[in-house]
Design a protein that fits this description.
By secondary structure, the chain is of the alpha/beta class. The chain has 4 domains: about 120 residues, Rossmann fold; about 180 residues, P-loop containing nucleotide triphosphate hydrolases (Rossmann fold), CATH 3.40.50.300; about 80 residues, Helicase, Ruva Protein, domain 3 (Orthogonal Bundle); about 50 residues, Arc Repressor Mutant, subunit A (Orthogonal Bundle), CATH 1.10.10. Helices cover about 45% and strands about 15% of the residues. It contains 20 helices and 16 strands. The strands form 5 sheets. It has a 5-stranded parallel β-sheet with strand order 2-1-3-4-5, sandwiched between helices. Strands 7-10-13-6-14 form a 5-stranded parallel β-sheet, with helices on one face. α10 packs across α12, α13 crosses α15 and α18 packs across α19. It starts with 5 loop residues before the first strand and ends in a 13-residue tail after the last helix.
C-alpha cells in the first residue's frame, strides 16, 4: 500500500512521530504527515484517502473540531479517523457523529490497523510541495469555481509565464481572486501582490497612484510618494476597472506596457518597471474600443491571454462549493459548531439570482453563519430576500410564445439532464466512474450521454454555456 493513501495530521510532533513509527513497524507504511494548517492545502473534492487526526489534548481538540468541521461542511471525501489521546473523558466524543471512528490511542491501535488495511484503493494524498502546477490549480478551482476547471491548463500556462493577462466579468465575479491565484502559482509568488482599483482613484491622481510623484509636483504634494509600479517591485500588479481610465492615462499606461519605462509625476528621471501586470475590466473592452472610450492599441497590448468570469447566476454549479467553503471559513472565524448546510438552504442559495455575485454571496453566508445555532445552517438563517425568491413575471415576448409542445418539452428535459450530468462530473472531480455511481447509471450510459450533450472535449467535459 502506498503511504500517501494515508495522511496523518497532528501538531503534537512526539505524538505524530509515535504513530508514524507504529505505522512503519506494524504495517510497513509511511503515511504523509502534515500539520492542521498544512493538511488544508491537500484537501479537495478528490482527496478520498484515509485521514488520521491525532489529538493529544489541550488546544489540539479545538483544532481537530475545526478540521472535522471543514471536511464535513465542504463534503470532502476522506475517511476520518481520530486517534484520541485525551483519555476516557475526552471532549472529542462530540465528534463521533462526524467521523468514521474515534479510537483511543494507543490502546486501540489494532483497530486503527484494520481501518488502514481496509482503506482500499483510490486517489493518493499529494503534498503541494511535490504536486504539479496543474494539479495545484485544479485543487483550488474545485473548491472555488469548478466551472473554470476546463481552463485549468490555460490558467497554469498564464501563471507560469510573464505575459500580461486580461480578466473580464461583472463586478464581484472573482477577478481579484483569480489574479491572486495567478500570482501565487507563478515564479513571482514570493514577491508582492498589489491591486489598484482604478475606478476609485480620481482622474487627476491616477498617474501619481501608478508612478508616484516628487515633492512639490502639484498642490498638496508636500512629500514624495512611491507609486504602485515601484512599490510592487518584481511582484504582480493588478489594475482593476481598467475601463475607467481616461484616454490620457491610457497612453501613459501603454508606454509602460511596451517599454517598462515611466517617470514619477514632476520628475524627469526615467524609471523601469519590473512588475508582472494583470488587468481586469467590468465591461466589454472591444465595444469600448469601437465607441472610442478605450484605445485599441492598449487593448491589443494587454490582451495577450484573457479569461472571462461569468456572473454567478450563470454558474449555478459553483454556488455549492463556494457556499460550503465560505461557511467553513466563517464557522472558524465565529467559533460556530456548524457541520452542514441544510438542502433547503442550499436550494434557496442556488435559486437566487445574485446581482452582487460572489461578494453578495459571501455577505449572505457570513450573516447566515453568524446567526446560526446548532450543527446545521437552515433556511431561516438566510436573509429574507434569499429565502423568499421573487416570482419572475412573464415578459410580453414570452407571453406571446406558443405553449410547450412535445419538441420544446423534450429540449427542456435534455437541458436539465445535461446540467445534472455536468454537475455530477464536477462534484466528482471529472471521474466518470464516480459520476456514474452518483447518477445511478452505468459508465457506458454516462459516456453516451456526454457525447450526446457535447460534454466531450478530449478527456474533459466542456463548461455549461
Amino acid at each position: 500500500m502506498s503511504g500517501s493513501r494515508v495522511a496523518l495530521v497532528a501538531d503534537d510532533r512526539p505524538l505524530a512521530e509515535a504513530i508514524q513509527t507504529w505505522c512503519r513497524e506494524t504495517l510497513r507504511l509511511n503515511p504523509l504527515s502534515e500539520t492542521y494548517a498544512g493538511i488544508r492545502e491537500l484537501l479537495d473534492a478528490k482527496s478520498d484517502g484515509l485521514l488520521i487526526i491525532a489529538v493529544s489534548g489541550g488546544a489540539d481538540g479545538q483544532e481537530a473540531l475545526r478540521l472535522v468541521q471543514d471536511v464535513h461542511l465542504q463534503k470532502f471525501p476522506p475517511l476520518l479517523v481520530i486517534a484520541d489521546g485525551c483519555g476516557p473523558e475526552s471532549p472529542l466524543r462530540a465528534l463521533d457523529s462526524y467521523v468514521a471512528r474515534r479510537l483511543r490511542w494507543p490502546e486501540e491501535a489494532s483497530q486503527m490497523e484494520q481501518m488502514i488495511l481496509q482503506a482500499g484503493r483510490g486517489r493518493e494524498f499529494r503534498s503541494p510541495r511535490n504536486d504539479s502546477l496543474e494539479n495545484l490549480l485544479n485543487r483550488k478551482l474545485l473548491s472555488w469555481t469548478p466551472s473554470l476547471l476546463p481552463l485549468a491548463d490555460q490558467i497554469a500556462l498564464a501563471a507560469s509565464h510573464d505575459v500580461t493577462v486580461l480578466l473580464t466579468g461583472e463586478t464581484g465575479t472573482g477577478k481579484t481572486y483569480l489574479a491572486r491565484l495567478l500570482h501565487e502559482h507563478s515564479p513571482r509568488k514570493h514577491e508582492k501582490f498589489l491591486a489598484v482599483p482604478c475606478g476609485a482613484v480620481a482622474a487627476n491622481l491616477i498617474e501619481s497612484e501608478f508612478f508616484g510623484h516628487v515633492k512639490g509636483a502639484f498642490t498638496g504634494a508636500d512629500r514624495p510618494k512611491l507609486g504602485k509600479f515601484a512599490a510592487v517591485g518584481q511582484g504582480s500588479l493588478l489594475l482593476d476597472e481598467i475601463d475607467t481610465l481616461p484616454l490620457e492615462q491610457q497612453a501613459a499606461l501603454l508606454r509602460v506596457i511596451e517599454t517598462g519605462e515611466y517617470e514619477p509625476v514632476g520628475s524627469v528621471e526615467t524609471q523601469k518597471s519590473q512588475a508582472r501586470l494583470v488587468f481586469a475590466a467590468n465591461v466589454d473592452l472591444e465595444e469600448a474600443c469601437r465607441t472610442g472610450r478605450f484605445r485599441s492599441d492598449l487593448y491589443f497590448r494587454l490582451n495577450v491571454m484573457s479569461f472571462h468570469l461569468p456572473p454567478l447566476r450563470e454558474r449555478i454549479q459553483d454556488i455549492a462549493p463556494l457556499a460550503r467553503g465560505m461557511a467553513a471559513r466563517f464557522a472558524r472565524k465565529f467559533n460556530k459548531d456548524l457541520f452542514d448546510i441544510h438542502p433547503d438552504a442550499m436550494a434557496a442559495l442556488e435559486a437566487y439570482h445574485w446581482p452582487g455575485n460572489l461578494r453578495q454571496l459571501e455577505n449572505v453566508i457570513q450573516h447566515a453563519v453568524l446567526v446560526s445555532t446548532g450543527p446545521q445552517l437552515m433556511p431561516r438563517h438566510l436573509p429574507v430576500s434569499v429565502q423568499e425568491q421573487p416570482l419572475v413575471s412573464m415578459s410580453p415576448a414570452l407571453a406571446a410564445e406558443p405553449a410547450f409542445d412535445a419538441d420544446t418539452l423534450h429540449r427542456h428535459r435534455d437541458q436539465t439532464e445535461r446540467m445534472v450530468i455536468q454537475r455530477a462530473l464536477i462534484s466528482n472531480g471529472y471521474s466518470r466512474t464516480r459520476a456514474a455511481d452518483t447518477l445511478g447509471i452505468s459508465r457506458v450510459t454516462l459516456y453516451k450521454k456526454m457525447k450526446k450533450y457535447g460534454l466531450m472535449t478530449g478527456n474533459q467535459p466542456v463548461p455549461i454555456k
